[in-house]
Amino acid sequence: MTSADLRYPQQTLVADYLRATAGVVLCGAPLLLLDVNRWLAALLLAGFALFALFLVRTALRHRTRFVLGPDTLCADGPVGTLVEWNRLDRLKLSYFSTKRDRSDGWMQLSVGSTGGRLIKVDSALEGFHDIVERAAQAAEATGAPLSDVTRANLRSMGIVVVGQEETV
Amino acid sequence: MLQFIVRRVLLMIPTLFVISALVYFIIDLPPGDCVTSQIEELLARGDPDAHARAEELRELYGLNLPLWHRYLDWVAGIFRWDFGLSCQDTVPVADLIGERMMLTIVMETSTIAFIWIVSFIIGVYAATHQYKLGDYVASFIGFIGLSIPNFLLALVLLYVGKVYFGLSIGGLMDPEYIDKPLSWGKVVSVMEHLIIPVIVIGMSGTAGMIRRLRANLLDELQKQYVVTGRAKGLPPMKLLVKYPLRHAINPFVADIGGLLPDVISGSVIVSVVLSLPTTGPMLLSALKTQDVNLAATFLLFVAVLTVIGMLISDLALAALDPRIRFGSSEK
Question: Which residues of A touch B324 (CB under 8 A)?
């Protein structure tokens, strides 16, 4: 297996920048332009902090490339980290949707190896399926515990981890 | 999760904006305005300056300005906690709603806590004791709660309390604490008076929740993994809590968002019947007199609470069970 360089698509990043900017402006503008009541100001400040954090995270994603190799997954960027597949001890696959019927959502994968920081990637990332597949193989080999939510989400992607069947 | 929270919060902002606009415009739709009834009163008294006085009032309340202008003024004022003037007593809306809003929040929060706690305990008990006496009693209470309108239950309790126990259960505090500053005695008095309204308002919500939790849990308890676990000799409590209860509780959590608007709208008529000093009766009177600023402010608060309830429900569900469902499509 050769290494693959993976990045978030430009379209996804632009959409996230727009969301973050809209939130920062909507929460920040009243604070700057109006005489705001202190309780509302606290609420708006919390919203401003949330969207500012999202803006920083989007910028970090913009500057990060993920290298998927046979032995490691490397996040190469300002806050880089590395996951060694043969020492994988954490794998979590979650599904999020903002719609009531839970359609049109996105997956988020969190993986970590012993003593290392977590790498979190969304399904918008190019090659996301390959990363999940490799992580599942690694979990199978190391016996990393998987929650039933993660197993269900893996199954929905057509991935079954041997040795992780539901037991009572 | 951060992306989920950001997207969810970002959806809230335009939602609230649209709700506030709709509410403001719809309340203003009927012919006439809040001064109309006052003119009629002045004319009936034979006041020769009635029309001049009406014009003065219209100018004072800003009713001579176009609707969109009044709406934007009202929205800009919200950030300063200034919701404009109420036509009813020509006092700022913020002064009118202060204590009522606080009492409403206390009452609605207590009602929701009551619904969760009672329905969780009874729902789990009914499901684990299916077709036993306790289950029949819980089902009976559930059907009673679902079939009796809240206001009727309030009337019955008022009657029973007065005639059989000599108790006056109207109001939300003893008369000596009305319009008095906050004190420990006032808090205790409010807590004592909260019991009946909380039961009355929470009855139908509790009944619905009990039925849903019982049905969900029964579905889970009949699945093969539970049967296998039981056959392998797992302790009943562990077998209940580890998987079935966790799965059954998801729809329960998803209902939290819908519970808040139900409780708030249900409490309006009950508050009128029980003479509770909450926002309900004032909202009703504001709608009748077309007091747009006051009614729109109340309804905006209801919308904010509803949207926050939905957010809490979605966040709790996303944290508890971030699982794909059949029919959902992955990006």
Answer: 95, 102, 105, 107, 152-153, 156
